[in-house]
Amino acid sequence: MATIYLIRHGESAANAGLKTFNTATIPLTPLGQSQAEEVPEHLPEHLEYIIHSTYLRTKETAKPTIKAYPTAAVEEWPEVREFTYLDPVKCMGSTMAERKPMVEEFWGTLDPDLQMRPDVESFGQFIRRVKTAHILLNERFGGTHENVAVFTHALFMKAFFQVASKPDAGAKQLMSEFFDCPIIYNCDIFTYEI
Length: 194
Fold this sequence. Notes:
The chain has 7 helices and 5 strands, in the order βαβαβαααβααβ. It is an alpha/beta fold. InterPro entries: His_Pase_superF_clade-1 (IPR013078), His_PPase_superfam (IPR029033), PG/BPGM_mutase_AS (IPR001345), PGM_Phosphatase (IPR050275).
């Protein structure tokens, strides 16, 4: 049985309330770097694979673990990136507090097909991507006894466990229940067994 360690990135500039410009290139703060340094202490003795999303904050969080496990294979998976749904033009140079009304408006619609711009996802598209990640992990590691660290994001992790527990639920139901999931803090580690 393979064990997947899903790890949220360390504190990012956005988490700290700073202005950000491009969701893919948001860096870690000094606190986030410190949190990332502690991650290997909470992982098993042997780790065969380290996977991170395409976003800078997961790459930076994975660095200490990559250093601690020099024989582990390292891969970048776009499937495990964060759910980006707000209009990036309107969000340019904004803080999390400034984006809050847009966030509340999006989630308040309960419309899984709402796509703010062609270059961002709807919730339904996001759920399909999360299901694809499930399939890829199962195909790749199912039937093995490997330990796999996946450096990812809070919204992805919430959806991942939603899909695992309710594989037949529709996107509208999952969207309405999305914030019933527990809060996932920076560098929290959750396990998923295949």
